[in-house]
Specification:
Blueprint (H helix, E strand, L loop, with lengths): L4 E2 L8 H8 L4 H8 L3 E3 L5 E3 L5 E5 L3 E6 L2 E5 L11 E5 L5 E3 L3 E6 L5 E6 L3 E6 L3
Antiparallel strand pairs: 1-7, 2-11, 3-8, 4-5, 5-6, 6-11, 7-9, 9-10
C-alpha cells in the first residue's frame, strides 16, 4: 500500500490569487506576479516533502512550494487542470516529490478525483539580492 500525502495542511489560501484571476490575468501572469523579485536557479528532479513550509496552487499554471527562503516552482503536464479549489494528493517517492510523479486533484467537499497532473522538474527561485 502506498502512503499518500494530502497537501491540504500546507495549502495557503490566497485572496490576492482570487482577485488576480478575476482581473483577467492569464495563468502565466499570475505566476510571474508570485515570482516577482526572484531569480531562477538550476532545475532539480526532486523536492523533499519534509522541507516544504507552504504549498500553493497557481491556478492554470504551476504548483509552488516554499522551502526556507526559496520558492520552488513545478509546471506540471496538464497544468491547465490546476484550480485553487482542488486538493492535490501526491504519492511521494521516499518522502520526495519527484519529476514524473502523478498528482491527483480532488474536490474538498467529497474528495472525488476530478483531474490529474504529472510533475516535472522543480525550479528553485531565490530572492534577488540575497
Amino acid at each position: 500500500m502506498f502512503k499518500r500525502i494530502c497537501l491540504l495542511a500546507l495549502l495557503v489560501p490566497s485572496a490576492t490569487a482570487a482577485s488576480a484571476g478575476e482581473s483577467g490575468q492569464s495563468p502565466e501572469q499570475r505566476l510571474q506576479a508570485v515570482l516577482q523579485g526572484y531569480e531562477p536557479g538550476p532545475p532539480q528532479r526532486c523536492l523533499a516533502t519534509s522541507r516544504i513550509r507552504k504549498f500553493k496552487i497557481v491556478e492554470g499554471a504551476a504548483l509552488t512550494a516554499s522551502v526556507g527562503g526559496q520558492v520552488f516552482v513545478n509546471r506540471p503536464v496538464n497544468a491547465a487542470a490546476l484550480r485553487e479549489d482542488l486538493i492535490p494528493v501526491i504519492e511521494p517517492d521516499a518522502g520526495r516529490l519527484c519529476s514524473g510523479a502523478p498528482v491527483a486533484l480532488r474536490t474538498s467537499a467529497d474528495f472525488f478525483n476530478v483531474a490529474a497532473v504529472r510533475l516535472q522538474d522543480w525550479v528553485p527561485y531565490r530572492r534577488i539580492g540575497k
